[in-house]
Amino acid sequence: MFSPCLSVNEQGHLSISGCDTLELAHTYGTPLYVMSEDEIRRVCRCYVQSFQTYYHGNGRPIYASKAFDCMEIVRIVLSEGLDIEVVSGGELYTALKAGAPGCRIHFQGNNKTLSELELALTHEVGDIVVDNPGELDQLQTLARAMGKTAHISLRITPGIEAHTHDFIRTGQIDSKFGTDLQSGAALALVERALEMDHVVLQGLHCHIGSQILETEPFVHAAQVMLDFYGEIVQKHSDFTLSWLNLGGGFGIHYTKKDRVLPYETYMEAVSAAISEKCTALGLPIPRVFLEPGRSVVGEAGITLYTVGNIKEIPGVRNYVAIDGGMFENPRYALYRSDYTCLIADRAGEAADYIATVAGKCCESGDLIQEHTRIQTPHRGDVLAVLSTGAYNYSMASNYNRNPRPAVVLVSHGEHRLAVRRETYDDLIRCDL
Ligand SMILES: Cc1ncc(COP(=O)(O)O)c(C=O)c1O
Q: Which residue segment(s) compose the domain that 390 sits in?
């Protein structure tokens, strides 16, 4: 078990934060998202502490709520001292309803709508991360009309390639996100922002990818962004950068193959690079933000299913069908993502059965994992998929009119519902 919240109990069952997964499945039904509050808090504290240890507390982590968004998770990360990053009006609304003050919200997105920007200005969001010139103009016009001042960062595309899956690589020039550095577009955007009377430019932002398992790309990104800061100051000597946001992207364990760095390593590596660069360029040291999503919740989450049909095709493969699928975990269908699966009833036994775990949606590609080793399955067993805390619930849909599963939080042997299971009535709620 690679996550500290997981173990095998005396009955040989998979246990999470002291809760028997078979009991959870029995109490709440399956499919079921289970999130360890203990593990989420442990990771939050690790990030917060890394700012104290390596950067004199001069900055903070921001939770990228897209990874897993519901009010209770927002409350937990807020209480641990993290800010909240949102990327849509819906995520912004959730954060506000969960009690996040506007000043602790960072609003991202490559194409925010006018009504989303209006919501952000109304609630005095402390950091609107402007993606491009069109958005900057729109924000200035809107802020003026509303008699508000927008506090902004600019999302820069630094041209750094992180070693990760193409679809989730965002720092390179060919990206729908941000304004490009190399072409001079980013400098032009800064100059335009500095001329505006309803916009205050405070930060620079970049995000170079996701599931990154090394520190070098982050160090390189920090250096490139500070060189850019130096370039701005050369032309505008009165400009001071209040904060530098280096994005998220820190990798987690999906399988034993993943070589995961302790999360404090990122701040350690980045802080040294920032001090060195600022000294070399004669720049004041900015506050730093990191924006982790996956690493805060990913390993804290597992999904529980009930095994249904088992179809063994000799010489081909063994399909093990579960009562979930791509509607509640679309990541294998989208990215061929690796996962570790196991039979929770016999978690301590050898995993010597090769299974293709298939969902119940009407798609051949509706798979959770192919040719993976699990304990020999039987109809009615509970099958657990590990490290599903990030980008599962948040990417879930109602495909084939499947209700979205409930979310249960577990902590020190106790469990409670954070999101109730959808009903069939929920599915037709908006139908006219
Ligand atoms: C701008 C931004 N910040 C933070 C994140 C969080 O990344 P991760 O969940 O990999 O830490 C993302 C993810 O796509 C992002 O686009």
A: 6-30+300-427
